[in-house]
Specification:
alpha/beta; Rossmann fold; Dihydrodipicolinate Reductase, domain 2; 2 domains; eight-stranded mixed β-sheet; six-stranded parallel β-sheet; 14 strands; 32% helix; binds NADP nicotinamide-adenine-dinucleotide phosphate
């Protein structure tokens, strides 16, 4: 066990609740402070997850000198202003995906974090998950030969609600920022390259958010196709085909419990199971706590370059779909 790290949670929505569940499993990560726009919500969250302090505004929470890291779980269009405010208050930041709505905002946050000598990371847990790491290891070891094709379905069926962050562009809705960021990180790791070409098609909702889409990323030697959306459920299967074998996961985007290695005749030759009974956020809490203990300013896997490369794909997808977040695109 190392030095205890005091975590603060900025907002009390759905994902903040999922994060709250994690602290009991990570003794060095202390559930310390929570800030909400509504003190009653902060108090309720504090009681539910055993936090020590509850604040009725984000600004008030950021005055607390004993916070070691702030986790931001607000809607995506709020991330830039919230992260900037945290950094300006001298706080290390782990901010939900997509960390900003565009690349220039993320670059501005990186410059500020550098100037203030603070930790900054997009909360992209997928590459930290053991089943993801196992697949990447099989690929590096040449177990499936050259990666040729990746297919993943990443969709949810939600009734249309213009006030929900899944549909409201003002809250950062859209498949590119919400779901694409996982897929782009996934494909980049498995192909070990940047895409040479991007083709995106899809459907915009009433306020111009991309609510259903399909993106094709062409890599040297292969391609990936991702289906993403909010209006139908699919099998959530993810498949990586190589010249000598295949890899398959179920439910990768909620943290696949198993990943399967197949030979070239579609026989399972190895199965790997997530070893701890943890969810993706657990791996994030564990490794970010270690980063803070070690005084790191950048996560060793989710580096700023990792996120910047993801934004290159995001920007091109937004351009092809004609998605723009208006006032929220500004610095
Ligand atoms: N990593 C993952 O697996 C994962 C999963 C789901 C979502 N996410 C990301 O997490 C973020 C939040 O998603 P969520 O589903 O938790 O959203 P949510 O349930 O709508 O919660 C967002 C919270 O942000 C705060 N907030 C601040 N300004 C707001 C505003 N103008 N309107 C609404 N809420 C506002 C609210 O907390 P207070 O009222 O307490 O201030 C609210 O409860 C998104 O960026 C999303 O992409 C990540």
């Amino acid at each position: 066990m190392g030095k205890k790290v005091n975590w603060a949670v900025l907002s009390t929505g759905r994902i903040a609740h999922e994060l709250g569940e994690c602290f009991a499993k990570h003794p060095d990560a202390v559930p310390y402070a929570v800030g909400s726009r509504d003190l009653a919500k902060a108090e309720a969250y504090k009681e539910e997850f055993g936090f020590q302090k509850a604040y009725g505004s984000y600004e008030e929470m950021l005055q607390d000198p004993d916070i070691d890291i702030v986790y931001i779980g607000t809607p995506t269009t709020m991330h830039y202003e919230n992260a900037k405010m945290c950094l300006e208050h001298g706080k290390n930041v782990l901010c939900e995906k997509a960390i900003t709505v565009n690349k220039k905002q993320f670059e501005a946050l990186c410059a500020l974090a550098k100037e203030k000598d603070l930790f900054l990371m997009e909360a992209m847990w997928l590459p930290l998950h053991p089943t993801f790491k196992k697949a990447a290891e099989w690929i590096r070891e040449g177990r499936i030969g050259d990666v040729q094709y990746i297919k993943a379905e990443h969709t949810f069926q939600h009734p249309y609600d213009p006030t929900d962050r899944g549909f409201s562009k003002a809250l950062g809705a859209g498949t590119i920022l919400d779901l694409g960021v996982y897929n782009f990180a996934f494909a980049g790791e498995m192909f070990g390259a940047k895409p040479e070409k991007i083709n995106m098609i899809g459907r915009l909702g009433p306020d111009g958010a991309d609510i259903d889409s399909q993106v094709q990323l062409i890599y040297p030697g292969g391609y990936a196709i991702f289906t993403m959306g909010y209006t139908s459920d699919t099998t959530a299967n993810t498949f990586i085909a190589g010249s000598k074998g295949k890899i398959q996961y179920n439910e990768i985007y909620t943290g696949a419990k198993y990943v399967y290695l197949y030979d070239d005749r579609m026989r399972i030759v190895e199965t790997y199971a997530e070893p701890n009974g943890w969810v993706g956020l657990d791996y994030e809490v564990e490794s970010v706590t270690e980063c803070i203990q070690q005084g790191k300013k950048m996560h060793p896997v989710i580096t700023w370059d990792h996120t910047l490369e993801m934004f290159d794909i995001v920007e091109e997808c937004k351009r092809q779909m004609g998605v723009d977040y208006g006032e929220f695109e500004a610095l």
